[in-house]
């Protein structure tokens, strides 16, 4: 008798679950913003119970990425060169984040220094969402990415070699979209928060495993 195996995947996603207290307008959003701080934290719990967390923070000119998995912690730091977000009243936006990482390795008594400059430019459209549930009109904003370009320039001191790689992605309207809750909106300050959660269940015969993921992201912006 043949054994039958069934695969079942169930996923749910919620975004912007925090209560807003920062109703905005296109006039308030319209500015060339400086990204003063950003936090991006993703947590994944596997079916076996192992939790992995990756946290990236931009603050005071430093990018810090911390990985925690199975009791082990790894931390990487980089220098932020540029972090800005231009949001226009006509419904377009452009965000630039650039940072530099320096890694030093000693080989046979000689220091190999590798410097990596990474610049990511995202562009797209944005608009407010209508009021629904606990949210009022203009308390949430949707950013749709249409184009994303990342340039990675790597230089090493030995032989002074340099290489440049470029990665470009294009998306249809609404294909790559994030919805943020506006937690604060003033003339010269803007705070955005995104919260997402998903779970997937794989079932084979009498066995099933569930993987859960959460994503929390926030931006604090200022303008002159």
UniProtKB/TrEMBL annotation:
This is Lipoprotein. PROSITE patterns: PROKAR_LIPOPROTEIN. Residues 196-224 are annotated as: Disordered. Residues 196-211 have a biased composition (Low complexity). It comes from the Bacteria.
């Amino acid at each position: 008798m043949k054994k039958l195996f069934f695969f079942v995947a169930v996923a749910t996603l919620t975004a912007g679950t925090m209560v807003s207290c920062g109703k905005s307008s296109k006039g308030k959003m319209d500015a060339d913003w400086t990204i003063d701080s950003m936090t991006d934290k993703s947590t994944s719990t596997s079916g076996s119970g192992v939790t992995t967390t990756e946290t990236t923070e931009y603050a005071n000119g430093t990018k810090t990425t911390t990985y925690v998995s199975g009791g082990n912690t790894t931390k990487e730091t980089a220098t932020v060169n540029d972090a800005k977000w231009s949001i226009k009243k006509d419904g377009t936006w452009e965000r630039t984040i650039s940072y530099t990482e320096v890694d030093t390795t000693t080989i046979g008594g000689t220091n190999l220094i590798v410097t990596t400059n990474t610049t990511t430019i995202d562009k797209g459209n944005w608009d407010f969402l209508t009021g629904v549930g606990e949210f009022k009109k203009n308390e949430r904003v949707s950013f749709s990415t249409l184009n994303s370009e990342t340039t990675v320039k790597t230089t090493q001191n030995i032989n002074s070699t340099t290489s440049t790689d470029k990665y470009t992605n294009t998306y249809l309207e609404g294909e790559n979209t994030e919805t943020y809750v506006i937690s604060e909106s003033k003339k010269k300050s803007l705070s955005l928060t995104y919260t997402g959660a998903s779970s997937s269940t794989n079932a084979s015969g009498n066995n099933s495993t569930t993987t859960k993921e959460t994503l929390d992201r926030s931006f604090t912006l200022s303008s002159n």
